Amino acid sequence: MYVNCYKLCSFRVNFFNNISFNFNRKYHSENVFGFKRKEKKVYKEAQDVIDAKCRESNFFRLVTAYRQHGHKCSKINPVTLATSHSLIPELEINRYGFKENDNVQFDGIISSGQKQGSIEDAIKFLNNVYCSYLGAEYLHLENEEEIEWMNQQIEKLPETNFSNAIKTNIATDLLKSQCFDQFLAKKFTSLKRYGGEGCESMMVFFNEVFKLSAGENIEQIVLATPHRGRLNLLTGLLNFPPSKLFSKLKGNPDFPSHYKSSGDVISHFIASTDLTYDDRSVHISLLYNPSHLEAVNPVSMGKTRAKQMMSKDGDYGNQSWSDKILNIQVHGDAAIIGQGINQECLSLTSVPHFEIGGSVHLVVNNQVGFTTPAERGRSSRYCTDLAKIISAPVIHVNGDYPEDVLKVTRLAFEYQRKFRKDIFVDINCYRQWGHNELDDPSFTNPVLYDIIRSRETIPDTYVKKLINESVLTEDNRREIVEAYEKYLNDELNAAENYNPPDIYFKKQWEGYSQPGDVITTWDTGIDTDMMTFIGTKSVRVPENFEIHPTLIKSHVRNRNRKISEGTNIDWATAETLAFGSLLFQGFNVRLSGQDVGRGTFSHRHAMLVDQKTNNMYIPLNNMHDNQSAFLEVANSILSEEAVLGYEYGMSVEDPRNLIIWEAQFGDFFNGAQIIFDTFVSSGETKWLWQSGLTVLLPHGYDGAGPEHSSCRLERFLQMTDSKENTVDGDDINMQICQPSTPAQYFHLLRRQMVRNFRKPLIVATPKILLRNASCVSDFVEMGPGTFFKPVLGDSMVVPSKVKKILLTSGKHFYSLLDKRGSLGVTDTAIIRVESFCPFPTLELREEISKYTNVKAIIWCQEEPQNMGAWMFIKPRFENLIGKQIKYCGRETLATPAVGIGKWHQRQVTEVITKPFLV
């Protein structure tokens, strides 16, 4: 229970300061408690003060109980199965020593507009505020200012009255939503539309929050919603042409024919539009959402942050949000509590480099998830209880009362604007039909749906109320419905000639396009002087900055030596050179993930920490005085799914940002599989959303056991649209590479930004190679005219003497190279495949054609035969190169690696020896 300790303590101090006790007199019957008999009047006055203060304290406790527990008996459920609402014990007045006719001071305790009154008056007021058609949860907030603000604002809500014009607007939005659903039901009888029937009040929320945003000079809203009522929102408020929807329903494509796209279902449609209210505009970006519920939420957060950065409104050294961009997330009741990504998203809200100044959350509470009733869909009282982990207030409201929805929408918006924190509006409503309109919900929820099917709809109920109030007439109602039906019919007729407009690659994406079906080569080298400058600056810190003593030698001195010599450039240094050169070209770089500043394997140290002050310093952000682009090092929470979704959202917003997510170990991507499946691998194909997101997955078999060995290349290769019989081009959906040298990695990172298109890049990065003396590059490999090579040939053998070719990738190359040297083999070439997808057909043909006496070609890998690249390599090599290829590696296994040290060592010996013996 929240208790205002300050008020209680102040009362005690003030009371005892004003009462004088005589403790020096002897105790006798005439001097009880230090008062003489003639001082009984003083004692009575003191007792009256005590009684008054106790009444005030008890009344405060009663009010606090209503603020804390009132929601438990509020009438927020429009289709409740309960027959009555009993008063809970915490709200019984005798618990606090009161009777109904007792008088108390209201002033300073409740915002009723009265200074004092009876307990009966107070109870009526408190019931009307906290136990009516809304229920408020906010006493879990940790900030007293927020609690006091909520007290005052909520207790003013019953006084709020709306003009007839506002009521008419509410009715119009509700009727249009209902009309739209009924129109689709008549014209497309077998359509799963996931309509808004039963939750039409959400339209009131949207219209009001858009209007308030425009009035507050918010420039853009990034909106994430699931299926429910999405089409109603699009066509009713977001200027989405119904003709486009009807054209899609008639089987026509989503995009102009010159784009490569497979399209998506209607419940994933989007809008990007300007809305004007009273001569003020706000831009709404409704994002594509996959069918995986709630997965779009972190994407919307990342997109919001990218927009905030582009707006140049905000100090990203101190405050990482902009007042001009607002994020709104819409949830389903079963999904918000059931999907773990929501907890991850909420955990990001106040983390540096992820905070966006708070989101407004709307829960469209159907009280049933698919077919599961609410009481079986969660263990908590409310589906919104997740909000309490970040001390976010929750306002529950009955969807049958659109005017109350409007009130709490204003409250939520004002809270977010004032405190820049998340807040939840939970509209309790219902689904008129099942999970979709073709589903029969009475199979599993018969009693609930008896109630739903016997009641009037929300729009009809509200319009009747307005007719009774003489705000509307039946003729007004008919005019609204007939006008909207005519509009929809006109749009249906126009669908026959609808052509999707070319609205893609505009604004910040101007100059970018979809790539062609050939693989292009891009010069990604830089001048030696530039490399020297960047490398030197990357380890320079302010004079009074104290670096960890170990790093002075292992990091600073070693890097300076390598840079001055221009040789033996290691992995981390090559990465730094790529980052620094991109910053000079005006591209921002963001590196996100768990412990990325230091690097999981303590190799990067892009962000240094002062050993005395704990202050952090990023040398690459201080290369020169006029630097405009920066490196953002975002050490993230222990999350994969939400963080990857966040980074994806940033990448699709602005192509000028190199967005990198690094997994702590390669297999950690498993926790983000939903994002890879529904966004990263398929976003452009479904929606024409290009993304240059770069994913670094530490990979390599070094005895770490089943989990931390493999980044599961086979899964990513399965997700590509590479074909076994066709030569790949740049138009592949995803790039998957395993560079074996620092220079190759350097070129990959730079290539991500210098091209005129964006593609996701999955990089299998090394672990033990990070400090391998053989895994180094020279400046000459990164200089002007150099570029990423999909295939690296073998310069250490004489082609005419080669009888066997070993194809491999990554770390395994160095093991095979060492073994070939120890065995003294001279007739075997080792060729590295640096890019799996796009598959380097032409480069492999050219390289293999050098060897005319080859008897056998073998694919060598560390992974088991049912994993790694083998299943991808074999059909493409044989179909496109035209030669047979054998396999040499670990045998098929259920886990990526064994967990017994001796077995691992035996396998290591076998996989690097066998290729030279077969």
Automatic annotation (TrEMBL):
One of its GO terms (molecular function) is oxidoreductase activity, acting on the aldehyde or oxo group of donors, disulfide as acceptor. Residues 569-772 form the Transketolase-like pyrimidine-binding domain. Keywords: Oxidoreductase, Thiamine pyrophosphate, Transit peptide. InterPro entries: 2oxoglutarate_DH_E1, DH_E1, KGD_C_sf, ODO-1/KGD_C, THDP-binding, Transketolase-like_Pyr-bd. It comes from the Eukaryota. Gene3D superfamilies: 3.40.50.12470, 3.40.50.970, Multifunctional 2-oxoglutarate metabolism enzyme, C-terminal domain, TPP helical domain. Coiled coil: none annotated. Its cofactor is thiamine diphosphate. The keyword Aminoacyl-tRNA synthetase does not apply. Pfam families: E1_dh, OxoGdeHyase_C, Transket_pyr. PANTHER family: 2-OXOADIPATE DEHYDROGENASE COMPLEX COMPONENT E1 (PTHR23152:SF4), 2-OXOGLUTARATE DEHYDROGENASE (PTHR23152). Belongs to the alpha-ketoglutarate dehydrogenase family. NCBIfam families: 2oxo_dh_E1 (TIGR00239), PRK09404.1 (NF006914), PRK12270.1 (NF008907). This is Transketolase-like pyrimidine-binding domain-containing protein. It comes from Psylliodes chrysocephalus.
